[in-house]
Amino acid sequence: MSRANERLDYRFFEGLFQSLYQRCTHSQRSHGFRFKNKLFSLDASLIDVSMKVFPWANFNRKKSAFKLHLGLDHDGLIPAFASVTRSKVSDMAQARFLAFPRGSVIVFDKGYNSYGWHNDLTEKGIFFVTRIRGNAQYRVLERHAVNKCSGVTSDQTIKYTSPRKDIQALKPIRRVGYRDQQTGKHYVFITNQFNWSAKTIADIYKQRWQVELFFKWIKQNLKIKAFLGTSENAVMTQIMAALCVYLLLAYLKFKSKIDKSLQQIIRLLQLNLFTRRSLLDLLQPPEGCGLVPPQLKFGLVRN
Question: What is the pTM assigned to this prediction?
Answer without folding.
Answer: 0.85
